[in-house]
Amino acid sequence: MNFLRALSILPNMKQYLLIISILSGSLVYAQPNTEIYLFDLEIAEGIPKLTNKTNISNNQGYDNQPYFYDDTTLIFSGTRNGQTDIRRYDITTGQSKWLTDTPGGSEYSPTRIPGSNAISAIRLDTTGLQRLYRYDTTTGKSTPILQDAKVGYHLWYSKDILINTVLVEDRMDLVVSHLKDNSNYTFQKQVGRSLLDIPNSKKISFLDFSEEGPMLKAMDPISGATEPIIRPDGAQDFCWLPDGTLLTARGSRLLKYHPKKDGSWELVAEFEDPDMYTITRMAINSTGTSLVLVAEASPEQIVDKQVATYNARDLEGFVSCYAQNVVVQRLPGDTLYVGREQMRKSYGDYFQRTDSTSVIVQKRIVLGNTVIDEEMAFDDGVENHQVAIYQIRNEEIASMTFLFEKQDAEDPVAIVQEQLDAYNNRDIDAFLATYSEEVQLFNYPETKTGEGQEQMRKMYQGFFENTPDLNCEIKKRIVIGNKVIDEEYLTINGQNFSAVAIYEVENGKIARVTFIQ
User: Fold this and answer.
1) What is the pLDDT of residue 31?
2) Smallest Cα–Cα separation from 487: which of 389, 345, 381, 375?
3) How far apart are CA 148 and CA 123, in angstroms?
């Protein structure tokens, strides 16, 4: 049991991360494989109700940053042919059309320009140049709006006043641009991406990261006066309902807050759909009848897809589940190869040599973005027992680590269970007696965190003495050869944590433990 790991994930409310990346002064947009879902929206007794979910992007790759061009038309950024273009979706007909196809450039954050049929969008060229452009929706031709500013996100306050987040050094600043006289005023440094009109007011909302802990604030773009609304509690994106209710999302949960009625965020809905695992963006039409949510699929769904494509012997479908620089390895620390192209060659050759291949998942452990599958693999009728550890990033499998069954391995379960019992009894001597003298502790995949019984005694003795409610419950257990993989649910000083531990047994003692966070 790695209590140090458990303690390290206690929430620190003073630590917040901006989900932006600065590289050579330009905003680098992350490119997860996201989809955009449209819902009908009703308000019943002050509670938003979502029905008729429709995937309107249905496109492999990045589909994001939706904006209601009008009540029945959406525009958003979508990936095709290796670049990101602007796409339009008609809610009434269900038809979509690409609006831009800029050689050497990708468009993001499309927005309608007030009093016009034209749209504005940030363009990131392959040269690294990043600017805000005006696009003719008929011809797709573009002209720059702000010549020198590196705009990250923007909101039209009127046809002549533009509110921007502008990249300056390693931050984004809130800048109000008056297009008539080309004047620019910086009202706030270090802000987030979400810029929104507040209904029934002349103010906008923005996320302020300059203070200790972020704060969602309201601002008058003319005077620059600001006032706090609410702490976002980790949320990055929001939308306002016509009645002044604020919506946001955390993971698969949708929450609401009304500044005049609510004291804190309240849960509206929690999606169980695997394709709504993480909600990242949202937008609402002006009448409050349609809501769109951008979401990433669950790690389980991604792994299920690669299992299905493997069993179908669909090489391209299988390889597309993996990141370009995927790492394939054996535990511990034995890299087989790196990269999607090498994977394509390896599995292509393998499919050529075999007539039938399949995998059956017998047991699964999921911890955050890590999926651990106990698998039975069949190669031309030959049965093999194995475990695969998949780590997911940006909706792709970033690493795949195999554990194979060791021939003539001793039964490891008894000694692992003995150490669990000693742990729950807080019996330091009995606990250490289950480990070898030279036991090694690692964080996955191979970062050493400790070695030897004496170091473990220093780590655990005081912890056992000062944690009267200490308990570890095994939720799932996988046994392969001399290894035991436990999904653990820990209680530590009134708080609960989940963890995965891989125990390797040699000569009747635990010789190595690898913890997955």
Assistant:
1) 66
2) 389
3) 13
Report d(CA 254, CA 298) in Å as an integer.
16
Is the preceding peptide bond at 103 cis, omega within 30 degrees of 0? no
Would you say residue 321 has pLDDT above 80?
A: yes
Express each pLDDT in 370-393 by its tens digit.
999 999 999 998 999 999 999 999
Residues 113, 352: Cα–Cα separation, whole Å: 55
The residues, any chain, with a CB within 8 Å of residue 411's CB and separated by 6 or more, are none
CA distance 412 to 436: 13
DSSP state of 362: E
Backbone angles phi, psi at 473, to 5 degrees: -110, 135
d(CA 230, CA 263): 9
Other residues' Cβ atoms within 10 Å of the Cβ of residue 353? 10
Three-class secondary structure assignment of 104-153? CEEEEEEEECCCCCCEEEEEEECCCCEEEEEECCCCCCEEEEECCCCEEE
pLDDT at 12 over 80: no
Give DSSP secondary structure letters for 201-227. Answer: SS-EEEEE-SSSS-EEEEE-TTT--EE
Residue whose pair of structure tokens reads 């009848």 in the numeric block? 289
Can you point out the beta strands (E) in 368-453?
370-379, 382-393, 396-404, 435-443, 447-451
Q: What is the pLDDT of residue 395?
A: 85
Contacting residues for 338 by C-beta, under 8 A, at least 6 apart: 325, 326, 327, 328
pLDDT tens by residue, 220-262: 999 999 999 999 999 999 999 999 999 999 999 999 999 999 9
Q: What is the pLDDT of residue 411?
A: 87
Contact between residue 224 and residue 185 where contact means Cβ atoms under 8 Å apart: yes
Left (φ > 0), alpha (ψ -120 to 50) or beta: where does 465 sit? alpha
Bond preceding residue 445 cis, omega within 30 of 0: yes
- What are the tokens at 1? 């049991």
**Which sign, positive or negative, has the C-alpha torsion 210, 211, 213, 214?**
negative
Percent helix, percent strand, percent coil in the chain, to nearest 5: 15, 50, 35
Q: For the segment 395-431, what is each residue's pLDDT rounded down to a tens digit?
A: 899 999 999 987 777 889 999 999 999 999 999 999 9
The residue to which tokens 């059956």 are assigned: 360
* Residue from 404, 382, 406, 400 nearest 307 by CA: 400
